[in-house]
Amino acid sequence: MKRGSIFEADGIPRMGEAFPLALQHVVAMIVGCVTPAIIVAGAGGEKGLSNEDKVILIQAALVAAAFSTLIQLFPIGKNTRFAIGSGLPMIMGVSFAYVPSMQAIAESYGIAAILGAEIVGGIVAVFMGLLVKQIRVFFPPLITGTVVFTIGLSLYPTAINYMAGGVGSENYGSWQNWLVAFFTLAVVTALNHFGKGIWKLASILIGMIAGYLVCIPFGMVNFSSIGEAGMFQLPRLMHFGVEFEVSSCVAIGILFAINSVQAIGDYSATTIGAMDRTPKDEELQHGIVAYGLTNVAGALFGGLPTATYSQNVGIVTTTRVINRWVLGLAAVILGIAGFVPKFSAVLTTIPQCVLGGATVSVFASIAMTGMKLVASAEMDYRNSSIVGLAAALGMGVSQATAALATFPEWVTTIFGKSPVVLATIIAVLLNIILPKTRVERKEEEEKKKAAEEKLERDHEEFGK
Questions:
Q1: Structure pTM?
Q2: Who's near 21: CB < 8 A, 6+ residues apart?
Q3: What CA–CA distance (Å, rounded) separates 18 from 13?
Q4: Fewest Cβ atoms closer than 10 Å to its Cβ: which of 131, 337, 398, 416?
């Protein structure tokens, strides 16, 4: 393999350049990657996991992120019609978008039902990839923004309960928990606004370390799980089992469809911001198909659902470092961490108040990202109705699940436990039903005409 520049997609750069850049990507996403696994591992009451299983779930999250990232970077069957992977400089990781639904499923059915639903969701994503050009019209920024905004809102109660020490804990709501949580949040906020370079980039990680250290004198950290964990362990096939529970599959399947469309935005942001071009149709198709297939494979080893990571897209567009070997090295670092149970065991010792203090800003950022997407569309009466009704009904029903008590349990699982599914369905339907303004109709006609002209040019080039 030839020597390459960090600003070129191919070629191996010098390790002295590649390693710190790869570590930068790892630092930016590792907390976001393992936190959903930690949250889901703690859900479920009697169906909650043992310390050993929590370690395995976190391991699987890291390995799944590494595996799916490498497939995206280095496609199988590259330059063929049936390639798996986009070949674009993308980082994949376990997504917060699935957390509200996964919590609800874990409480009712257990981890196996999440993994079964993930397999179904992966298949949905494959079809989304194959039909990406036809389907993306149903998810303009107004709709994806509404969904992302609702995801952020639905995660706030999780963060607050964690800040208080976690529902069911003996010291839930104690002053120590709130003190540590707000201290952690203060560190994260200060670094985000006043820090520079790695201090700003790693603000959440540094905030969690600071909060963790404060917890030790309070006796809030239990190190017993670290001693019990081994030094090296491969992921375990079907360790948690797989269960195909219909309502869980529907809920997660809808989220996979949404994240497939969201991925188009991340692919586009990467190529436009760092490569000065729009993504090719085949890159989008192969990337989303790979997203689906890697989730199917990851579920068999206990890996929770992955998605493109927007914070890493931000790093790529800011630095313009698009070398696939740099990002591949970041994936290798994640994979190695996933093979070391003691590393995963350390993560299970993080007190819930620290997680809450660190992640509340992440959840706020998710909600604000949704608002920005919504604001990119003209907020006339029609669009305001779509956003307002979708968010109101989605959040309202999930906050008053007793209102669905007379319905079958599957209705509550799909529509009542997480607001995201109901908000998505309502937003899509209203966007189809409600009449568009004259400006919006004109814009759609112009886009359709441009697409037809592009298709005609492609046919002419193919004929030559």
A1: 0.74
A2: 6, 319, 321, 326
A3: 6
A4: 131
Distance from C-alpha of 204 to C-alpha of 27, rounded to nearest angstrom: 9
Give Cα 166 distance to the centre of its chain: 22
Q: Which residue has the tokens 């493109």?
A: 308
Partners of 3 in beta bridges: 12
- Amino acid, res. 49: L
- State residue 154's pLDDT score: 79
Cα gap 348→37, rounded to integer Å: 10
> Taken in order 235, 240, 244, 249, is the CA torsion positive or negative?
negative
> 139: which 2 tokens?
């998810």
- pLDDT at residue 445, rounded to an integer: 67
b/e for 233-270, b at 16 or more Cβ within 10 A?
A: bebeeebbebbebebbbbbbbbbbbbbbbbbbbbbebb
Residue pair 218/176 in contact (Cβ under 8 Å)? The answer is yes
Which residue, 313, 269, 263, is CA-closest to 288?
A: 263
Q: Which residues contact 374 (CB under 8 A, 6 or more apart)?
A: 141, 142, 145, 146, 149, 383, 387
Pairing label, strands 92-94, 306-308: antiparallel
In the block, residue with structure tokens 């998810």: 139
- CA 446, CA 152: separation in Å to the nearest integer? 33
CA–CA gap between residue 302 and residue 233 (Å, rounded): 14
Whole-angstrom distance, CA of residue 325 vs CA of residue 161: 40
- Is the model's pLDDT at 2 over the cut of 60? yes
Query: Which SS3 state, helix, strand or coil, does residue 3 take?
Result: strand
Which of left, alpha, beta for 173 (phi over 0: left; psi -120 to 50: alpha)?
left
What string of DSSP letters covers 320-351?
----HHHHHHHHHHHHHHHT-HHHHHHHHTS-
Amino acid, res. 411: V
SS3 22: helix
Rounding to the nearest 10 degrees, give the CA dihedral for residues 32, 25, 139, 379: 80
For residue 457, the model assigns a pLDDT of 59
Question: In 247-401, at which residue ranges do the beta strands (DSSP E only) sit?
Answer: 306-308
